[in-house]
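Sequence in, structure out. Go.
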Amino acid sequence: MNPARARIALTRLLAGLKCAGPCAALLAALPGTARAGEIDGSTLSLLWGVPFAGILLSIALLPLLAPHFWHHHFGKVAAAWALAFLLPFAARFGPGVAGAGLVHVLLAEYLPFVLLLTALFTVAGGIHIRGNLHGSPGVNTAILAIGALLASFMGTTGASMLMIRPLIRANDDRQHVAHVVVFFIFIVSNAGGSLTPLGDPPLFLGFLKGVDFFWTAGHIFPETLFLVGALLLIFFALDSWYYHRREELLPRDPTPDNRAIGFDGKANFVLLGAVVALVLLSGMWKSPVSFNIAGTDVGLPGAVRDVGLILVTLASLRITPGQVHEDNRFGWAPMQEVALLFAGIFLTITPVIAMLRAGAEGPFAAVIAAVTRPDGAPDPAMYFWATGILSSFLDNAPTYLVFFNTAGGDAAALMTRLAPTLAAISAGAVFMGANTYIGNAPNLMVKAIAEDRGVKMPGFFGYMLWAYCVLLPLFGVMTFIWFR
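Output:
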């Protein structure tokens, strides 16, 4: 992809954010804002949650029931559900409140969220791993372990896009490869991204809400080490059993082994470091300088981070050789889909957040009761499983926000007095996003790449069977040890 084509591609991505109608880009607002908090959730009906439930059910079912329609019209579906919330909201609370709230969430949360994902997606797409190792159980396990380590620093999306192609190449002379990709989704696309806000979208949303950059690493590192370590051991045993079956190896290797491993597009590693530095800077730099835009205060550290991420994205497109993008089959479609769908999700979740914040006085009193002990204290085990179950079938980023706000939404209190609760929410959102293909965005991306390379991946329910047989027992052990 030459620079001119790169600029055209980026323009198409940005244009795609508008294709769902003029609201889709502006409505792309994350919830939990001050405006959302000003709404008295106790006065809202559960009907306000219908658009949120509708868009999530659309994401879960339409790709299975009407894949052709979904592929061509997912942006319109997201916009329709967004309007189903926005128009009644504006009628009830007034256009001024609705407009000011949209501007606030757009500038304060949605743009930082999408800009980080775009930067990581672009930088990872600009790195190509040359060579081809032999996909033995030891090599496969090592690749998964490296991917897990990278996931917390370049995101589950970035690490997945970087590592899945060499993993498939290494195993393209084997008959049974689906289990390799399934465990890749478990480990690299989900569990490995649990230690920093760069790792997984839910944690970045928590970072935007005020959770310290290194808080998660300090509080769920043992859980992460246990889960990743256990999965690697289970995978090694299972892959060894497959590998040593006589019929496992194909008579001809489509890509002969070549241990001369190298990297093309190495300059993108420098840009990856720049992304890490920008996010760290925005969390550690305290400045009184801010800019008021339509009633929204945009702090100088956040503005510097966001502008820096845009520059990193453009720099990656500029310096990456076209051959690298071609080798990686780099394109904007996955990022455009994530941006548009998250726009609708995070807008429609606004009244849900307000209702949850109403606590026992709101429509979701039963949810609050389920995650609260008789003495009124939050129950970490219930938060872990409630967050995890919803993350399995919805999307783990908005699910994290739902329970973050259910637990009070005060980052300072959640990091200290309620630290076990925040740890349970964080672990549930990140770890259990692996339970289904739709739990986390990289899951479907990895599945699509594997199938494009000829791997016969399990269907939606077949994958769930894998996940529940392998993951649920481990989650049960984790609950007993850490979340009682």
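Check: The CA atoms of residues 384 and 425 lie 5 Å apart. The first strand starts at residue 128 and ends at 132.
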